Amino acid sequence: MKKEKINGAEALLRTIEAEGIDTIFGYPGGTIIPIYDKLYDWPGNLKHILVRHEQGAVHAAEGYARSTGKVGVCMATAGPGATNFITGIADAMMDSTPVICITAQVNADKLGTNFFQETDMIGITIPITKWNRQITSVHEIPAVMAQAFHIARSGRPGPVVISLTKNAQVEMVEYVFNPGKAIRELGLRKVTSREKRITSENIKRATELLNSSRKPLIIAGQGINISLAWKELEELAVQGNIPVATTLLGLGCINSNHPLNVGMVGMHGNIAPNSMTQQADVILAVGMRFSDRVTGDIKGYAPRARIIHIDIDRSEFGKNIKAGIKIQADAREVLTQLCQGIQYRDRQEWLDFAKEKKELERQKIFVPQLSKDDGPLKMAQVIEAISRHAGQERIIVSDVGQNQMFCARYSRFERRRGWITSGGLGTMGFGLPAAVGVAAGNPHSTVIAVMGDGGFQMNIQELGTLLQSGLAVKMVLLNNSYLGMVRQWQDLFFKKRYSATHLINPDFQTLMKAYHIPSSKVATHGELDEKIKEMVTAKGSFFLEAIVRQEENVFPMIPADRTLDDIIYENEKIHHHGNR
Fold first, then answer.
1. Do the Cβ atoms of 207 and 239 come closer than 8 Å?
2. What pLDDT does 580 receive?
3. Which of 136, 363, 483, 561 has the highest local Cβ count within 10 Å?
4. Which domains does the chain have, with CATH numbers?
């Protein structure tokens, strides 16, 4: 193997490129200048997208990773540049997103001296990373970076932080990249023959349980997307005639139009899957973690069901819900084996129950939400119009709040990896920078970022990234002049005491002119379709501001301390925190 002497900055960039990465999101600073100096005339295919805030770099890397299946990479300088990564890193950890966050650090001989912009990123990020490592010598770079990529993308994916001292960036090394050797040196634990046997036995038990069940329900989570198990999920459902529900992050893992897709579970999920959870005799949970937003009060969750839990991360077993059969393995591998033994059963009565609940929701929720009246636009109407006009190759990126829930409920998901949002951490401000990353990784897709006026302004500076990069993002702002989800909770549970949730907003149309982004505004039903068509057919980025009802709530809803049986459909008088 030929050896060549290069500096640490070049070694880092060569390693990133060797791992198949074509895009880095970042923001320069004094301590990381050697790396940016090498990027200045980099001869390869690696491109850098300059964000306007380091948090935006991590969210962009997340959007890139989740929409392409690759590892997202972002860079920042030491001190405040590095600490601005924290929210994004935590978000990636909660949603199992493979990102590598490279932060510069002061010279190795200055560590621990409170040198200018020295911050212990290793200590800070231990609880919110899958792995982190301080590099203090150029000789560590090739091996540690190979290990970082392997750890970020393997098993249950997650964020990795690499803190790289300045001296390591400029020191010289005979560069040799041997990822196989580096990964072996990690000494990762291998699955034992006994564990393989137990997994095989549990898959057999699960197959028998599903075959004997009258009311089975599959709940598919983010793990389906991570393991690329879309085909196997559909095959299992069809072969066994088993209805499928999804979590928020699992949306799109089965086509919205599939006859066995009964909808989304959870707090603002569909009536059918939530009701079916409570009636099911067997639940097959795949790549999901039984979050509180899915289960409601766990004491009343799925009272009739025997639960089979498939997850690659054993720490999820029994964390929230106890499962009778636990299968620790890759979702795709397990579903493939289940397909071999699953038998078709006539479950017409069970499927009719789903249809009955779907019709109930159509009458109580969908028809009123989508019907036109003399009032202002409703958020549901805007989202439904996007689904009709944006084409099947659209990728929807949502921010967090009411806009997210209306997106999840009224979008049609017809492509894989067509839905990107912040789930576990619920990060307002995620939408715009994540859409930047999605656009960078999917230049031929229509990328639509749906945001509320609160979340949009949290990372509004990333409009500058669109201006400079030329990336195409169609932005839809659902402007109700409120922090909508917080206001909804104040409405339902705090007697309409709207404390610090009303927003006085800038003129967003004038703001778009400053960033040279074409824009338009829609406020009436009659012009909605025309404005959506204008947005999706525009070249490059476009901003559509939809003026929607100020005090609109998203229903149905499971209040936070209630069970899935306690569905509310409208503003019922439920007051928590001593106000019942």
1. no
2. 28
3. 483
4. 4-185 (3.40.50.970), 193-354 (3.40.50.1220), 372-547 (3.40.50.970)
